[in-house]
Amino acid sequence: MLHIDQLTFGYRQQPALLADVSLRLDEGDMLGLLGPNGAGKTTLVSLITGLLKPAQGSILLNETPVRLGDRRIALVPQEYAFYPRLSGRENLNYFAGVQGLTGRAAKQAVDHVLAQCALASEQHQRAAQYSGGLKRRLNFAIALLARPQLLILDEPTANVDPQTRKLLLDTVRELNHEGVGIIYTSHLLSEVEHLCNKVAVLHEGRLVLHGDMDSLLEDAQQQVSLKLYKVPPVQLARRFNACQLANHWWRFELPPGTSVAALLGMLEEAGLQYTHIRYGTQALEDIYLALTSTPKTSAAS
User: Fold this and answer.
1) Could you tell me the pTM of the whole model?
2) How far is it, in rounded angstroms, from Cα 21 to Cα 27?
3) Contact between residue 217 and residue 282 where contact means Cβ atoms under 8 Å apart
4) Most exposed of 11, 45, 61, 240 (fewest Cβ within 10 Å)?
5) Domain range 218-292, CATH class
């Protein structure tokens, strides 16, 4: 479906906003696109939607290069992208025309998204009078008018009420089951973890992780996370490839033949006590923080 190959982009003052980014999205995939502020997510989305042109590399949707105004692609921006003085229906009528829909096709599309996004009862109100949740729904409805093959959502559930959040997420899942490719950007990592089947993490303009969500979260009992309030000694940290996470959590990799009990014994001998322990599946937040956190101070000697 979407094939991004060795994508590079920058300006004269910032030559490496994105460097050698490659990823693939198949039909029916939902990709969680993550990264700290300034990592390159907005730049990548702008390249996919044709707003920017890459310095190197290619972006193909169903083997055809993407272009500005490509109706196969729709973006739901974090900012509101409609006219507040127009009603909900008037906004949808206008944007249907922008996307090339006219006559009966336009009316059917507008009626469909009004129902799909639960806006029918408020369709004649000015958008300026909408609540925050209704404005999010209108933003979403506009993107669905032309039935895109690829839908990009930027923080779609930020600051919304629970009912709107459920409606948006349920609709995203339904579209995905119908074969629409989804790129979902959010700082709510638990939401991404439960919604997406693929994940990609950008950090400082480079793709530092890309793969299947379930495979990435499985650790086959080769790792254990402990809550420690002291930094492990350097020798022990190196032996277990210790990585500091958030809120005093540390992740340790267990070498072949080494048990958790052996690790705990070594920590006790070093004068460290743990308050919590976690086995099995990692959380997406653990992986994300390990990949994107600034370097920590060296472990204690």
Assistant:
1) 0.77
2) 20
3) yes
4) 11
5) alpha beta
